[in-house]
């Protein structure tokens, strides 16, 4: 029916605004902010209904790590469609799910032994939180009911995940519905005191966490962190020493360590998993986004044999982990994930990412002198630029001025999808971007920053 209707940007936007409610959006904005109907995608490019194209500098919310419609992933999905689309994973299994679990455990940090599937990143965090709590309950330590998270953390927007999130924009409205975690100061290197290095900040924050654990360990299930980069908080970055120190503290005080690598996993920070840079294995490793190359929703929680064993008992013991999603281990999504891991296995992705990251660093270097930029930071193929009203004092622009939105608008006008986080302009491009495209991406962003800070 719809194929005969007009497919211009204006026509599709009008139809959309009559029926849809978009995520992370004040819909009133679209009275003046154009809604962009995308009709096809290829590689780094998105194409709208009027034939314009946009370089996807944020990998469509950090998912499309190999760009859009990677041929190997497309072929794998077409092949899978010929045999099995979906079957419930309770009481059944299938080769894509078990092969993916085998491969994930092969490449993950050592010591992880079991894979539990869910549908998206928030769901993976929910699984890890519940599984940690339930583990301690099964062990006869029911007083462990709380969690510790970093200030500025973001772990999702379902209620459990939101409970361990410390971004006021998302959390404040729903605070009455949430668990009450303990927040420990972030090791964010941007918060360094005069003369402090990033490693010094990490050491200081570990000392503060030690004090918290001394007070709260008996009631604490787990500490949850985003390794190396707190993405939604404005791409806040910290030294790997914090991870190794955190692992030691969790072991000492008998609490779990949950690593939320939903955004930073699969090569984004320069290693396959960010945890590798701290030399650690978490008790729970949460994965999603790049897991399927951005093709389909899927998440996985990897955990240890010790955790698994705490639930393994006769049914009447009441120890089973009774958590499920209808699409758990969907065969199509698992096959897309297997194809994604196949690309990592067969191509020098990590080496190429390091080369692209070095080029991105060189391209960003001139922005360090900009009078309204307080910081240019980078971790692998994640980079961020901090806009401020006063560079000397680091006084931020008031949020209501929406300076980042001006950069976003400028980007769209010049064929670039940039989606700043408040006053932080960041880059998280697909791994298939070229050095020339990086140059264009940064040039458009720089011009947008000039325009936004006039």
UniProtKB/TrEMBL annotation:
Keyword field: Aminotransferase, Biotin biosynthesis, Cytoplasm, Pyridoxal phosphate, S-adenosyl-L-methionine, Transferase
CDD domains hit by this protein: OAT_like
Record GO terms (molecular function): adenosylmethionine-8-amino-7-oxononanoate transaminase activity
UniProt keyword Cytoplasm present: yes
Principal place of residence: cytoplasm
Family annotation (NCBIfam families): bioA, PRK05964.1, PRK07030.1
Protein name (database record): Adenosylmethionine-8-amino-7-oxononanoate aminotransferase
Record lineage: Bacteria, Pseudomonadati, Pseudomonadota, Gammaproteobacteria, Lysobacterales
Gene: bioA
